[in-house]
Amino acid sequence: MREFLLLAATDEEGDGGLPRVPVGDWVDAGFDWLKENLDPVFDAISTVTEGAVEGLVDGLLFLPPVLFAVLLAALGLAARSVVFGVGSLAGLLLVQSMQLWEPAMETLALLLFATIISVVIGIPLGIAAAKNDRVSAAVRPVLDFMQTMPAFVYLVPAVIFFSIGVVPGVVTTIIFSLPPGVRLTELGIRQVDRETVEAGHAFGSSRGQILRGIELPLARPTIMAGINQVIMLGLSMAVIAGLIGAGGLGSVVVTGISRLDVGLGFEGGLAVVILAIYLDRLTASFGERGRSRGLRALLTRRRAPVEAVADPAATPDATPVAAGSRT
């Protein structure tokens, strides 16, 4: 079987007598041309990216781990629910107790930088695709290609252009996680009620005012779902990027595989799961603020009845009910 595959790859005639199309040779030639002519650009991208990720890592490791875990749990408490805040604290303390806090923060820094770049590129591109059918038709096949290409294939050109390390990990993470941000931004803008947009035009609003005041707020849940998917895909790719020396939890998992150390691999995978659940629930809560059970929503609900009782004018039509009466 192996000999057959090698012959199929080297023979001039493929299956069915068709001549072999040297797609791989063309791709090799294209990458060689890019490497020879755009090497200074790749060096500049590498320098900026490495500096930004290292700065984020230093910032995330600046506070003591326990204090930073408490702050992250408090953010989860305020944004979502008490149960989520307590669970987040327990999970983050478990990561620290497994002595994987520093690799986890390296992965988080890589993911944060890749997500910011993906959002900066993806949301404007999604808006442009929603506003112009030609842009949408041009972007869609590119996104299909990016999403269906196996993730491991991205590692090869990234290593050719940026060598090994954190930079090719960031680049592959951006490429792999970008499509959902573009697609769901376009979908969210297109799903906005046309009558609401026409009402904005009727009041004399400009296209920019309609976008900022009507379309983006109404499309926010869908756009946040896209950002959530960007983060989840980015985290999976950041772990795979451990194969090319991106560091973080990916390197822990790769080390566990190379040594056949089941315990180390499981601890690295468990830390990835804890980080993924925290980021998933946290970002999802920003898209469903109305259903939030977080501290802010709880205080708002408790304050509302007090204000209503303190201001009888708020219920002018209320009919007094005699004590002891039944309806």
UniProtKB/TrEMBL annotation:
The keyword Ion transport does not apply. GO terms for molecular function: amine transmembrane transporter activity; carnitine transmembrane transporter activity. Pfam families: BPD_transp_1. Its main location: membrane. The keyword tRNA processing does not apply. Residues 104-283 form the ABC transmembrane type-1 domain. GO terms for biological process: choline transport; glycine betaine transport. It is a multi-pass membrane protein. CDD domains: TM_PBP2. GO terms for cellular component: ATP-binding cassette (ABC) transporter complex. The chain crosses the membrane at residues 66-95, 107-131, 151-176, 230-254, 260-279. Keywords: Cell membrane, Membrane, Transmembrane, Transmembrane helix, Transport. It is found in: Cell membrane; Membrane. It comes from the Bacteria. Belongs to the binding-protein-dependent transport system permease family. PANTHER family: GLYCINE BETAINE/PROLINE BETAINE TRANSPORT SYSTEM PERMEASE PROTEIN PROW, GLYCINE BETAINE_PROLINE BETAINE TRANSPORT SYSTEM PERMEASE PROTEIN PROW. This is Glycine betaine/proline transport system permease protein. It comes from Blastococcus colisei. The lineage of its organism: Bacteria, Bacillati, Actinomycetota, Actinomycetes, Geodermatophilales.
